[in-house]
Specification:
By secondary structure, the protein is of the alpha/beta class. Helix content is 35%, strand content 27%. The strands form three sheets. Strands 7, 8, 11, 12, 13, 14, 15, 16 and 17 form a nine-stranded mixed β-sheet that branches. A six-stranded parallel β-sheet has the order 3-2-1-4-5-6, with helices on both faces. Strands 9-10 form a two-stranded antiparallel sheet. A hairpin with a 2-residue loop joins strand 13 and strand 14. It is globular and about 75 Å long. The termini are far apart.
Amino acid sequence: MTANSVLIIGGGAIAGGYDADRVDSLPLTHAGAFSRDARFRLAAVVEPNQARRAAFQHRWGIPVASASLEDLAAGAGAFDVISICSPTAFHADHLAAAIQLKPRLIFAEKPLAGSLDEVAALVERCESEGIRLAVNYTRRWDPETQKLARQLRDGVWGKIRNVAGIYTKGVVHNGSHMIDLLRLLLGDLSITCVGLPLFDHWPDDPTVSASLVSHEGVPVQLGAGHAGDYALFELSLTTEHGQIRMIDGGMGWGLRRTGDSPHFAGYRALSQEQFLPGGYPHAMINAADNIAGALRDGEPLACTGRDAMAAQTLCAQIKDLALAAHANGLHA
């Protein structure tokens, strides 16, 4: 079986940098995941910085390296997969250029573009060209998160009473991970109110607190931390049969289940928290596996362009409402 050829656009952290010095650990990057899977071969990389390009090419044993897509395209053959790992400002242009190269599948970092109109146009172009589009909302491929989503759908935890999440580093950039995760677990969401913008990292993408509600009426509180303090991405679900807590972005989980109170007869109470390892380190390996299945058998992708567009739409609404309140003279 011929391995699927992969072009990686960008040579930074998520492209392969997080795995630059990791040999035996589970990979956290595009290059790391594809290089571990015999169904893929890293065929080319595009990275404008010469030193970074040379280091990336050497680290991953990539035969072709180019400073730009234009230079690469002049002599490039067809690629089965194109991974877009460039800085956010270049996502839209690189996605449009990748579509011109007509790969079978594009695996893109988020956000796909700066405006919702651009996102919609790019998603529709992929669909019209018959190009599969996967977007790296990583927890979609986390096996423990997928397990929780199934359990919630099957009623294992009973009714969901309340959900609270907290994040840092921009409502579109990092908050969209939380919104996509909430959509995976709860379905469609609508906004009830938003807080004021907190510019803790990106000058044009504030971190914003918000209150939302699911289509089944579950209240959701979205809290804003500060990226200057530390990275934070955690989620807590209170349900009929207990509490579930995502710790450190999915690196761990805390579970509390209901039972008879050890102190007060006739009362129900929550158990001591049970800590379990998370599945986040397996996410990129699972993403590569899902992509291979999509290419071979038409397997559904765990996260599509439509999923990403829905998450970014909600995040853009939260951001716009917060900025409008700020512009109208409200202050944190």
